[in-house]
Amino acid sequence: MNLLDPQGPVAAANSTILVDSVFIMLAIVVPTIVAIVAFAFWFRASNTRARFQPDFVYSGRVEMVVWSIPALTVILLGGVAWIGSHQLDPRAPVPGTGSPVRIQAVSLDWKWLFIYPDQRIATVNSLTIPAGAELNFQLTSSSVMNVFFIPQLGSMIYTMNGMVTNLNLRADNEGKLQGLSAHFSGDGFPDMMFDVNVVSPLSFPDWVATTAKTDAVLNEDSYKKLMQQGIEKGRPTYRLDDPRLFDLIATQHIPPGPGPELVSDAGRSHTGGVDAR
Amino acid sequence: MSMTATAGRAHADPHHIGLVIEHPGPAPKRTVTAYGFWVFLLSDIVMFSCFFAAYAVLVNQTADGPKGSEIFEQRNVAIETVCLLLSSFTCGMASIAADVRNRFWFYLGMAVTCVLGLIFLAIEFREFADLVSRGYGPSRSAFLSAFFSLVGCHGLHVSAGVLWLLTMMAQVFAKGFRADVLRRMMCFALFWHALDIIWVGVFSVVYLLGGGA
Amino acid sequence: MQAVPTLEALMLGKLDWSAIPFDQPIPLIAGGVVLVAILAVLIWVVVKGHLPYLWHEWITSVDHKRIGVMYILLASVMLLRGGSDAIMMRIQQAIAYQSQGYLPPEHYNQIFSAHGTIMIFFVAMPFVIGLMNLVVPLQLGVRDVAFPTLNSVGFWLTATGALLVNLSLVIGEFARTGWLAFPPLSELSYSPGVGVDYYAWSLQISGVGTLVAGINLVTTVLKLRTKGMNYLRMPMFCWTTLASNLLIVAAFPILTATLAMLLLDRYLGFHFFTNEAGGNVMMFMNLIWAWGHPEVYILVLPAFGIFSEVVSTFSGKALFGYRSMVLATMAICVISFMVWLHHFFTMGAGPDVNAIFGIASMIIAVPTGVKIYNWLFTMYGGRIRFATPMLWAVGFMVTFIIGGLTGVLVAVPPADFMLHNSMFLVAHFHNVIIGGVLFGAFAGFEYWFPKAFGFRLDERWGKLAFWFTFTGFWITFVPLYAAGMLGMTRRLQHYNVAEWRPWMIVAAIGMAVLSIGVICQIMQLVVSIRNREALRDRTGDPWDGRSLEWATSSPPPVFNFAFHPDVRGEDAYWDMKIAAQQQSLEHDVPEYQDIEMPRNSPTGFVCAFFATIMGFALIWHIWWMVILGGIGAFATFVVFAWRDHDEYVIPAAEVAAIDRVNLEERRSLVSMAGAI
């Protein structure tokens, strides 16, 4: 999951900016730290060779320099930030080879549901994508906030109930990656890691065909079962019944997922974590 | 520790040019109290601005419930506004009376202020009770949540103000126009006027903008 | 439909025996130990007959110095609590590789939430407010803060908040949502327990205390300054105090309003941040960070002020570029309100918005950088004495620059797209908060301790504490930077990524080193108290200081100064020392006058007592107790307003007697120095 080992153009650009920014700043940070240590050492009270200059408390020239150094650095970095933010806008498509793949990701308590509306299949905690293709993600949440993040593909984005956020990525190399939720979402949060299988563009249709033969069907009912709080250890796959399922979730036609337990009518709910699970 | 204060003055900064007006020293208590209370009022206004902001964000989130124009009654709001503005005037009268130590006019001014405040609260309470009974309580929609909180927060301030007002009257009755009582009276007057200003905001943002649409 | 509530439900609300975590040994034992310790201390106090002394001299005191000391004591105790949480988290993450570790999620999640809440609200805040309380009136040359009794109220309300947070350890639970309790997770449907209520009510109550402290200190700096103390002659610490408290006054009401909305959602079914009926979670994000980002500067600006004092004193020079520093401070104060969105670049705002907020955030680095350079040039040409406070200052400068670097890095939106919410971010804000605020608090503690208590702290243990803390800090947090670069996100109770594990183990080792630092600090206190006669500061000026707090005795008399000092320039006390030498110590015999001081008052303590009752009752839905607490608090204020004498007089003769002792000590020492 090394951020400095990107597997796609977005992650590559992100990490390049990251590394460049660090070097730009190191160029002034390192001399400053050296100066701090050097001044502190040389002007120690016991050093008789150091000249005591108690009246050196103002210098227009020094002031000029100390305001300009950080200002110039920030101007430079500000340029990087401006250009970078625009070039790497998560909403901007990342062109690739072949036809784009549309994926709708829903964060559930506490698992990830990936819907492939065009292929009419869905998977849980396992994302399979073709290498080199343009990937358009639509993201939402069944209940609380989460963040969709595949470190080696770059750019993370929040998922929120009742809202759709967009993310565009591309994976360049075949292989296995990992994704995770980057926003704390409750007791099962650590188990929200998911597999990312980047397969060749040729074997992707095969995988779709195999998955479409699954017995399990994802419709409103099975979705409602799936969104109950719990941890999913397996990697279930589904045939997708209604390709508009994601819209029903995002527009809250399917109501948000329930919490740990229903609050009883007298408003009494017990405390402590044990009964909440 | 030896004192090696032989050199090293702070005046090497060349910009000490011309006359510097010397600070005269700590301010008198009345100034300090008023100043501190002003700072508090500013912070209170910041808090209100959050509720205003929330209202602005949520005003269209009616969740198929009523819109503002369907539930606001301009006549009641007009009466509320008149009450509050008048009460500011009578509160000012009471302040002047306190400054010249005239008990009769002080009590009269405060009593009228109190009555006007209570009328305001009664109308607001009736408006809220009416809405809740029609099923348009604050849990109906995000818009109504924001509406009840903003207007209710002001209402709570007015209630606290009435409590403070009565305490001030009791205190003048028991202690007379002592210096500390006068300082508190000044703070109360500031508070009451500030509530008026906030009401002008509530009136414009909630009832005028929301009612017309 | 709603059933008629039982008598039990009326009397006790949601409270019953299941609130005590009998099945969770760790919090139960921890809570039990704390309870026994508190009881033991109480019994000891009563048996030894210290209670009247404590009551009259401390609990009811409205003396800003005493209140400052109590704030710092509260912060130190809570530092141990927050620190234990940190140790537990580091151990959990070190062993929870492909296993559940030793803490189940519902417990681990409470721990990291409590750690953040406690460290920010009940360690960092009271520590800096305590130092400001202690020092600012002395530096301004006045006798007390603007509102002494309110000051006491503010402190005790802060203590109430701390008490409630700790109460959640044994009765009920604490929030399991993180230290900012983001909805909808913190809404009733996803957090039905009392944890979030404990969180919100303790912050509401202590928030009132903080606001009171803020108003008090703003008014003090702006309206209570001694003769000749023009704005541009104030010590740097007063300037940063002003900036920090202006931020408190402007930002804390936002927190109050935001938490009030969350509480309305939870208690009365409102829909501010719920998933249903049009609630908007993004509004919470915006509001909470509109408070949260200024909060960072509320904490770090006073630390900057402390370092300015320390660096200039121990370099034996005036602060370099004083006006530049003032400008930088006020610039930070203003800009800090314009950058809140950088906490959620990844929420999907457009590139323009992200870039603008990113650049605004970077701009804060400019005045901050200027401050670093000005400290650097203060050292240049100085005669630096490496007493413990100066060690903390230099340690800070090195540490904080790295923290600043990583901070600017996450202000670049595309970089933040990779680092948001990661361990890298965790490392970054610990780097600035520990390296900035905590080092600053420790420096201030070492620097002003002699002023508060009349004796210096042991240097050997102090230096040991510094080196262990400094080293421990780096061993703990460099691995977290590394883990963040490996994609590790924060708040993980367990994980199964092998490459993260070594870093977590190193971080746990670092935590052990850091803990040794804390132990050294405790040892320093113990050793110093034992050797206090040898460490006694007789002159009131142990460090050869430059500002007015050193012009009075240590500890200062209750009235601080027999006369309001007359200030003629920056570094007021330094100028006086020079003047004293040049006039070969000829002093007029001053004519002492009676001094009026505010009387002590139990208002703060009683008010906090009722606030505690009210807070607890609100958390557990015990409505009759809420009303009782409310009436009690109101009655307290009325009783306070009714008292006839709010001041007492110290006769001129007594003032003279106290002042002369200190003057004699000083003169003898100055003449000795002159003779050499």
UniProtKB/TrEMBL annotation, chain A:
Residue intervals of the Cytochrome oxidase subunit II copper A binding domain: 98-210
Main localization category: membrane
The keyword Transmembrane helix belongs to this UniProt entry's keyword annotation: yes
Location in or out of the cell: Cell membrane
Entry's Gene Ontology molecular function annotations: copper ion binding; cytochrome-c oxidase activity; oxidoreductase activity, acting on diphenols and related substances as donors, oxygen as acceptor
Region annotation Disordered: where it falls in the sequence: 253-277
Membrane topology value: Multi-pass membrane protein
SUPFAM superfamilies to which the protein is assigned, alphabetical: Cupredoxins, Cytochrome c oxidase subunit II-like, transmembrane region
GO biological process terms on file: ATP synthesis coupled electron transport
Chain segments annotated as transmembrane: 22-43, 64-84
Keywords, ordered alphabetically: Cell membrane, Electron transport, Membrane, Oxidoreductase, Respiratory chain, Signal, Transmembrane, Transmembrane helix, Transport
Entry's Gene Ontology cellular component terms: plasma membrane
Positions of the Cytochrome oxidase subunit II transmembrane region profile domain: 1-92
Alphabetical list of InterPro entries matching this protein: CcO_II, CcO_II-like_C, Cupredoxin, CuRO_UO_II, Cyt_c_oxidase_su2_TM_dom, Cyt_c_oxidase_su2_TM_sf, Cyt_o_ubiquinol_oxidase_su2
Family membership noted in the UniProt record: Belongs to the cytochrome c oxidase subunit 2 family.
Name of the molecule in the record: Ubiquinol oxidase subunit 2
Automatic annotation (TrEMBL), chain B:
UniProt entry keywords in alphabetical sequence: Cell membrane, Membrane, Oxidoreductase, Transmembrane, Transmembrane helix
TM region positions: 35-57, 77-97, 104-123, 143-166, 187-210
InterPro entries documented for this protein: Cyt_c/ubiquinol_Oxase_su3, Cyt_c_oxidase-like_su3, Cyt_c_oxidase_su3-like_sf, Cyt_c_oxidase_su3_a-hlx, Ubiquinol_oxase_su3_dom
Residue ranges annotated for the Heme-copper oxidase subunit III family profile domain, each copy included: 35-211
Subcellular location field: Cell membrane
Pfam annotation, one family: COX3
Entry GO terms, CC: plasma membrane
GO annotation, biological process: aerobic electron transport chain
MF GO annotations: cytochrome-c oxidase activity; oxidoreductase activity
Major subcellular location class: membrane
PROSITE patterns: COX3
Statement: the UniProt record of this protein carries the keyword Transmembrane: yes
Family (UniProt): Belongs to the cytochrome c oxidase subunit 3 family.
Protein name: Cytochrome bo(3) ubiquinol oxidase subunit 3
